[in-house]
Amino acid sequence: MRSKHYILTQFMLITFQGLLYFLLFISFFSILSITNPSILNLTRTAATTMATFVVILAILTIVYGGYDIINKKSRSVFSSIMIATLFSDIVTYFQLQIMNVNPANPEANASLILFGEDFLLLLLILLLQIGLIYFFVNTGYKLYHRINPPRGCCIITSSQELSIHVAEKIATFRRKFKLCDVVHYECPDVQKTIEAYDVIFLAGIPDTEEAQLQNFCYSHNKTTYLLAELEDVIISSAQQQVIDDTPFLYIHRVEPTPMQRFVKRAVDIIISVLGLIITSPIMLIASLFIFCADQGPIFFRQKRATLNGKVFEIIKFRTMYQEDARAANPYSATEDDYRITPVGKVLRKYRIDELPQLYNVLRGEMSIVGPRPEMLENVTKYEQEVPEFKYRQQMKAGLTGLAQIDGKYNTSPKDKAILDLMYIENFTLLMDWKLILRTVTIFFRRDSTEGFGSPKKREVNCPKMRTEPLLEDTVPAAQGSQASKAPTPSQETKTPEDNPEEDNPLRAAL
Fold first, then answer.
1. Dihedrals φ, ψ of 128, to 5°?
2. Which conformational region is residue 197 in: left (phi greater than 0), alpha (psi within -120 to 50 degrees), or beta?
3. Helices (H) and strands (E) in the chain, counts
4. Is the pTM higher than 0.70?
């Protein structure tokens, strides 16, 4: 049964993805051929523009993830494909207009025309492509989950608090997982429980016991998720080496080479200069709104920590009232923070308040990509809670980064540290470019700027952690999927509310 589901799923994914990208290609060139018939003929213009579109779309699909409806929410898939398609359209359109300029050809344009008749056709193409992407993502997402109903899963952990944290994450993928049980790792029937479910989450378990449970899950072909710890990040970057005839994991710190540092700094200078020039109209408008709101200072300066603990003064647009911005004991913004001005809410929502940090990048105090620069007060507090938090300072603080993109403003200090260490341990210049391109995706995430202490957390289905075995007649039998199996009386909890945005990627993205 599982192999049948797998074959159906792969056939559906290949068919839908292939058809979607084919139609995106056809829609672009068929509509533009109305005014550019040469792009459908065997000409140099046609070959060049088609190759450009295909190559750019392929590269950006790898960067943004493409049609990954298995592991991502529908709105994330929609935004990823839409961004890749938009950039491909723009680059190919710009190239086509350049190639249409040929003074020696009486039928060609005498000069570069970017906003002529072709531009109106480009807008029509974008509207059609939005509809195509929405249809294929929404339909594919529903069909995939019809073929693959929610998989029964359990959490094996050491505390109820940790199980709730994991359950909150599982609840965001309610159509993929159904949490049925929570078991303490020392519970006598823990192995029987593992046999009963398809997916096992291991969280906060001592190393020895965790290794034993991993081996048991592996031997029984169970899908296993481990809650990442610092040592897991370090091991994940290890190289495999065979000394004589014995395999080892080679763990060592790899510092960026002088050439990598030079290229990274050069990229920082180029992007910060271009960014300051391109965004100057936006920053001018923001400055006017901030000043007109209360005639206070436009910029906000605060001491932050960067490479090797060096302190610098970050520059941002002021988003709080004057007296709160100058407070002696600052703290991170919370949900519905009274200190944030109406103008500041808009600036924070669209990350406009962070644009002045391009000046910090130009001065060399920050980099375009790196760990998020934290307030000194937070650094002291977080290092007491999570000693590994100090390892983030092995790399210069950045305007964007893995923690800023995949995390949230209110992500826990431990998870921030792990995300930043994942970047530091796997640093490459290619990874920097990938993160720069992925930065645009944060504008499609409503939770990316969610403040600390958010009161909007929905209830999650988290059974009470068991430390004693179930009675023999209530232990679920091992089977393929537990999605349809009702939980035992001890497991009944409140069910999370449905999220309509999950089934409507266009509404969520816009």
1. -65, -40
2. beta
3. 18, 10
4. yes
The token pair that represents 205 in the structure block? 């378990």
Query: What tokens appear for 414 in the block?
Result: 């431990």
SS (H, E, C) 369-409: ECCCCCEHHHHHHHHHHCHHHHHHHHCCCEEECHHHHHCCC
In this structure, what are the phi and psi dihedrals at residue 165, rounded to the nearest 5 degrees? -60, -45
Spatial distance between the Cα atoms of 52 and 47, rounded to a whole number of angstroms: 8
Distance, CA of 382 to CA of 390 (rounded, Å): 9
Take residue 25 and report the two structure tokens written for it.
């290609």
| CA quadruple 38, 43, 45, 49: dihedral, nearest 10 | 100
Contact 319, 350 (CB under 8 A): no
Q: Would you call 154 helix, strand, or coil by DSSP? A: strand
C-alpha distances in Å from residue 278, one per residue of 90, 281, 464: 17, 7, 54
Over residues 314-322, mean pLDDT: 89
Give the Cβ contact number of residue 147 at 10 Å: 15
Instruction: Provide the pLDDT for residue 107.
Output: 60
Indicate the residue type of 481.
S
Q: How confident is the model at residue 474 (pLDDT cuts 50, 70, 90)?
A: low
